[in-house]
Known about the structure:
- By secondary structure, this protein is an alpha/beta fold.
- The protein folds into 2 domains: 23-262, Alpha-Beta Barrel (TIM Barrel), CATH 3.20.20.10; 266-394, Lyase, Ornithine Decarboxylase, Chain A, domain 1, CATH 2.40.37.10.
- It has helices at residues 3-13, 22-34, 53-61, 71-79, 96-104, 114-124, 162-171, 190-204, 232-250, 262-265, 298-302, 390-394; strands at 17-21, 41-46, 65-68, 87-90, 108-111, 129-135, 157-158, 175-180, 212-214, 255-258, 269-281, 284-289, 308-310, 320-325, 333-340, 348-352, 372-377, 380-385.
- Strands 1, 11, 12, 13, 14, 15, 16, 17 and 18 form a 9-stranded mixed beta sheet that branches.
- Helix 6 runs parallel beside helix 7 (162-171) and helix 8 runs parallel beside helix 9.
- It is globular, with a radius of gyration of 23 Å.
- The N and C termini lie far apart (53 Å).
- The mean pLDDT is 97.
- It binds ligand LLP.
Amino acid sequence: MDNSTLLNLAGTFGTPLYVYDGDKIEEKINALRGAFPDIRIKIKYACKANTNISVLSLMRSLGVEVDVVSPQEMHLAFKAGFSPDQITFTSSGVGFEEIEECLAEGVLVNVDNLSALEKFGQKYGNTRPLFIRIRPNVQGGGNLKISTGHGNSKFGIPVEQKAEILRLVNQYNLNIVGLHQHTGSDIKDGETFLQAAEVMFELAMSFGNLQYLDFGGGFKVAYREGDAVTDMKDLGEKLSARFRDFCKAYGRELELWFEPGKFLVSESGFLLAQVNVVKNNPNGTLLGLNTGLNHLIRPMMYDAYHDVVNLSKAGRPAEKKYNVVGYMCETDDIAKDRDLPETAEGDILAIRNAGAYGFTMASNYNSRFRPAEVLVYQGKEYLIRERETLEDILKNQVLITF
Ligand code: LLP
């Protein structure tokens, strides 16, 4: 999306504002499909990355299905028009009642621990199909907070507990239709996927009725120009070849599933904000924005790099280094040491890669409103979430007057 479109949107809808480029989302979906031309693949969008129901609706219209991690996400998916058979609930240490709730709606459930497997067996036996999430003990992910497949992680059933899994599967005659793993987020090295896939292929041979293998999400996207990303073409070629061999050995053609979040939406999103204050401190110049970690927590939480563009000075050369900070009551860095054109109070900045884990991780900290959201698709702009008001902040609060 070009800078002048973004600047116009800031003018029309005000700031802070989340903007998503629907054409970019479509391009990413096509890129993923294009990397696996000869395999039956299914994209199960990990909607935790961005659950706006209009984004979900766009995904649905483009033939993407959805992976949810809570009954609430399941209901958002229903709202966006997904049918139960298009939704998988990947549970992670949830109470069994959440599993029951999703099953009652006809949604496929992915179980991540032996205790839930046993409860499932006792209550449902082989009357419902089931997915099992395994922990392959493969290290993947950009940093420890977003690594999930390694041998110290809480996620999935450790693959070395295969005997226990099989004992429960046999005892309750469970209908295991799929195996699942997700080794982390921001995985640059395609080898990580291939290594984890080998673990899954080996385990899969012990299950007789599989239809799907789900390799999770985690593809690394570009956060700045020239950034190393997962090489999808190379991964597509190598994993397709191994998958075909596996299916031959297994004796049935399975479906290959992915659950990307960032890959589909990260680069589509921009957080637009205004410069409230330019502070010329002796140790550097600060740009204080009308947003902060309440709206985009990734820089403070993961040291994530987000590119910043001064839309009001687009096309001008970078002249100066700035530290971009938020307006919260605590250290609230957004971007450090960035070369930008001479920036003035009132300028509108775009923070890039804000489409994934931006709004969904936003809060009302400091009792501030969460931003509005706009989706632009095929030349049309849609307001897909209104800016909050004081009523939203007060909703559910109970005033006891003492
Ligand atoms: N599948 C499962 C089971 C997951 O847990 C996740 C993400 C995904 C798929 C999608 O991963 P992705 O393709 O988006 O990397 N808030 C962090 C990321 C946490 C990811 C949690 N699980 C961040 O902002 O970097």
